[in-house]
Amino acid sequence: MTARSLVRPALIWSLAHGLLVVAFFAAPLARAVAPLPAFTTGALWAGFVAEGLFVGLVAFLATLPFLLLGGRYRVAAPLVVGLVTLFFFFDSLVFGSLGFHVNGLVLQVALQPGALAETGLPAAEAALLGAGVVAALAIDAWLGARFVRRFAGAGRTWPLAFAVVLLWIGDRVTVAGLAFGGGQAVTAAGSVLPLQPPVRMNGLFRRITGRRAVADLRLDALPQAGTPPGKLDPADVRFARRPDVVLVTIESLRADFLNEQVMPNLWRRAQAGTRFTRHQSSASSTHFALFSLFYGLDAQRRDAVIGAGRSPVLFPALKNNGYQLSLLAASSVDWMDLKETVFRDVLDGLQTNFTGAGHTRDVQMVARAERIVDEARRDAPLFLFLFFDGTHFNYTYPERSDVFRPAWDGVGSIAATRVEPELLANRARNAAREVDAKLEEFLRAWERTRGTAPTLIVTGDHGEEFREHGRVGHASDVTREQLHVPMVVVDPTLPPGESDHVTGHVDVVPTLFSLLGDTHSPSLYADGVPMQSAAADRYVLATVGWEPRFALVGTEMKVRFFGQDGGFGSVQVTDPDDRPLPDGAARFRAEAPRLLRTLRGQIGG
After folding, report:
1. How far is C-alpha 160 from the chain's CA centre?
2. Which residue(s) pair with 498 in the sheet?
3. Fewest Cβ atoms nearer than 10 Å: which of 55, 266, 370, 559?
4. Strand 245-250's sheet: what is its strand order?
5. Quick count: other Cβ atoms within 10 Å of Cβ 377?
6. In the prediction, which pLDDT does 115 show?
7. Going from the N-terminus, what domains does the chain have, and what CATH number goes with each?
């Protein structure tokens, strides 16, 4: 049996696996096609078959160097195809969760210590998954070797391969034609599967048809990503007031969880302070959100600002005004380089990497926080940052907080994508209720020890989806569920009540400086403004962080847009709850000047 006689069955085996890849991506493909014009959907689904065959052809080409093994090619080829297919299976999980394919950033994160724990995948479950993958790969390779041997013989291989290439080229041209009449969303749908570069042929189709391509709304500007417009020396910051300050961030806390049923203690405290009901996280991923929270800058500035060696103004300003600083993070900040970037100037006061998972980390953090309060000097103000982890996937809590039922049992993290959304939400509500209880116990201990209540700021780093849009978790989109978070500020200088003006994480540092009596313009150090003076017609900018996917969120309108080829594709105009607006195009054009000012980093939007 010669290696040449094995090539044709190896190609057929590879093409079959290409169709299997289409099955892996079935859910993302269905989501991408659902909102498109009806005339595009049938052709796109047919095209997905051609795209899958092309993926299989690429896998086949990867086997050809192993022809040098002679007859052993019948074993090597299925093994290579299996490995390639396994990679695309992993890629489908990443795409289904995050909305983009495996790239260098994903691999960088996956290789960091603690990455699996931070994504909510227990080590035991990861080991079990790994064992299952190895077993599946072995069975697939065994079946493939039998298939290749069984159908070995003469046959035309390359005409079949060439036909697949022609079919794929036809698909790319078809998608380009459908995009001409259906918009950039068609191009995006036709690029969901891996190895499918977008092809744009609007100019050609315009000449053929004599009409213009469908008019997509566009934002011809990039969000400001360079150095902020000014720079404030922390030594120049002067606080007229120096109350104790507690800044609390709660992992993955959605805005709708702040209510009397889920978080009764914080809800009660919020009645004595100001609740900002339209607060938006700057990013749906933690490391970008924390950048904004402490720098006061839009999240997409992160790489440029940190790369230039710039530190937050907040920490040295607090120290210069006599504050004792302690920062405790049960939700680990020891990954994604947060310790070396956002917190590098306060490493002596930062404690993270508490052991265990979820609420057990919170128990340790709160106990440590109480010791810090006991040991702190009474003649100097104290600034304390607490980052609770119990509300992180897979949402853990003790029996006392098992209130909302029925709830997901938290077992089988991968299977969570098939759990009923309300069961997921109930488990997360229980976790939030437990964080609420722990926070209240700590604040009462603080008041007993320090003799007075601190200025209190409480928010979520970002929100969380419970399959409202097909995904579980965060860091995948700029939807309301992932961006809209609570914001409570309790300070005697603020009147009790609610504010329905749009605010964001970029406003936290300006708000704190304003409350403490500093008179510098926020434009010297931040993209935000004091929340109590935010304009009613304002827009705030948010991003996924991992990729150039953005949203401009206002009081009545939200504009979502995506980075493409150095420019921007079409935008989606909705209300702040992501519901399409019938007059969205007209509103977009009327608001374009203000939207562009926000993108260019002008304070107030």
Report:
1. 41
2. 275
3. 370
4. 350-351, 324-329, 382-388, 245-250, 455-460, 487-490, 274-280, 497-504
5. 9
6. 59
7. 3-209 (no CATH), 247-527 (3.40.720.10)
The DSSP code for 74 is H
Q: Which helix (H) or strand (E) holds 326?
A: strand 324-329
Q: Kindly report the number of other CB atoms within 10 A of residue 348's CB atom.
A: 8
Which of 92, 9, 74 is CA-nearest to residue 417?
A: 92
- Alpha carbons 148 and 153: distance in angstroms, whole number: 9
Measured from the Cβ of residue 65, the count of other Cβ atoms closer than 10 Å reads 11
Write the DSSP symbol of residue 213. P
Which residue shows structure tokens 């039922």?
405
pTM value > 0.90 = no
Closest CA to 289 of 478, 553, 94: 478
Query: Token pair for residue 485?
Result: 């978070």
CA-CA distance, 430 to 423, in Å (whole number)?
Answer: 11
pLDDT in tens, 104-148: 655 655 656 565 565 566 667 777 878 888 999 999 999 999 999
**Distance between CA atoms of residues 526 and 531, nearest Å:** 13
* Token code pair at residue 26: 């079935």
Beta-bridge partner residues of 261: none
Place of tokens 């013989």: 153
User: Are the CB atoms for 324 and 243 separated by under 8 Å?
Assistant: no
Dig out the tokens for 51 from the structure. Answer: 């795209």
Tell me the C-alpha distance between 58 and 66, whole Å. Answer: 15
Q: Is 48 in contact with 62 (CB distance < 8 Å)?
A: no
* Angstrom distances, CA of residue 214 to CA of 28, 272, 425: 24, 52, 39
CA of residue 317 relative to chain centroid, distance = 30
In angstroms, the CA 426 to CA 405 distance is 6
pLDDT-derived band at 566 (thresholds 50, 70, 90) equals very low
The 10s digit of each residue's pLDDT in 319-377 is 999 999 999 999 878 766 788 889 999 999 999 989 888 899 999 999 999 999 999 99
Rounded to whole angstroms, how far apart are CA atoms 88 and 18?
10
Look-up of token digits 């860091």: 475
Strand pairing partners for 460? 250
| HEC string for 546-586 | CCCEEEEECCCCEEEEEEECCEECCCEEECCCCCECCCHHH
